[in-house]
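May I ask you to comment on the folded chain given beneath this request?
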Amino acid sequence: MTKNLFTSESVTEGHPDKICDQISDAVLDSIIARDPRARVACETCVTTGMALIMGEITTSVYCDIPKIARQVIKDIGYDNPAFGFDGDSCAVITAIDEQSSDIAMGVDRAYEARGGLGDDVCMSGAGDQGMMFGYACDETPELMPLAISTSHKLAKQMAAVRKDGTLPYLRPDGKTQVTVEYENSKPLRIDTIVMSTQHAEDVGVETIREDLIKHVVAPVVPEQLLRETRYLVNPTGRFVIGGPHGDSGLTGRKIIVDTYGGYGRHGGGCFSGKDPTKVDRSAAYMARYAAKNVVAAGLASKCEMQLAYAIGVAEPVSVRVDTFGTGKMDDTMLADAVRRVFSFTSNAIIRELDLLRPIYKALAAYGHMGREDLGVRWEQTDKVEDILNALRYRH
């Protein structure tokens, strides 16, 4: 029997990079709620005493970006000047331009429509070139890899016990990491849990260790997985200086946390702050939707979808399925069935996944995938019968 280890990490909503993701997506939500046709590419940077919001936004509505940024920062928990960074006293700088007309030209009307190759003269082109991946596996009920799923749950619980007063000495910044031991490609147990959390100065590391195991690990991790598990809590011994006061943050710097924890491949593009014409975001959601339905249909234990696009072109230049040898049929047959069931043009993805809604800030922490708790469309498994029927039709 073969045993090996795999590790994934997550971060709390108070991590500097995640602050930036949430501000960028809060700006997007504010605009898209009133102007669904807006083009938004919003980046945020934070450091001691300052938040910089920059990017390209074309919209017909007014958006008070500094007010949104301050509210997000305070809602996360940075509401005290003693933390070295807070929503009331930090400087908020904005540097916003409109979307490039050269990009807009291809997005507004796709290559196919401009060349007379498409039926829809209003067909939109992809907002950028690149490749996007979606992944699913049968390790958890939400069909996510166990390591990233558990890391997210620990990070979310760490924030919950801070906010509800169970552990009032915790501060917003924190990270979690989970190492899973596999036997014959199946998760066997959790080998190591690492938890680092910002805390009040007068609390010792042993108290934090005991409290986190009791109030964070025990409520969210199944006991049968905690066999001979090693715990590393605040391994440096002290984590008082944190958040943007301890480290600068930037939108899009936690792309592996946002997706599959390194378990599946990644195209490199981030999600936060981008409206759904940007296929970095929307096509990654669609790829997850397709991969999850393949696994939910019992056609594979693992499924990875790759989509690739050219800027301004509606149809993807490639669609690929990889089941890593777990598929019940050839991967090319599955790819053909997926293409029969799902449309991967920008317009179709936006319609199918209902992406012109203010749903994005809630996704900006604790992962964009596996979020059945938020009711997002790409986590539904309503295409199972369609995929099975497409395979029957082929035969």
